[in-house]
Structure prediction request, 83 residues.
Amino acid sequence: MLKVKLVNFDDLTEEEREIQPNNGWGKEYANYIKITDGTETLMILSDSAEPEDATFNRDFKNVIKAIEMAYLKGLKDGKKLNK
Prediction:
């Protein structure tokens, strides 16, 4: 089941913390959207960005990927339910 949660740095695993960008005020102060399917983390989005890079063409381009991923996952899960 796909879940999308707004989380803080402390809510991430140690491994997830290590790979987050340290832009803006720092990764410890950023907010995160964590997308999971069961126990698997599919994507983590961060609002940690330099002001000049805070656009959908740069730091926030993964928002588009997240929407597409959720849509495709929904189609796949819906097909399973209809069988």
Notes: Residues 36 and 42 are 5 Å apart (CA to CA). The radius of gyration is 14 Å. The beta strands are 2-8, 31-37, 40-46. The helical segments are 14-18, 62-81.
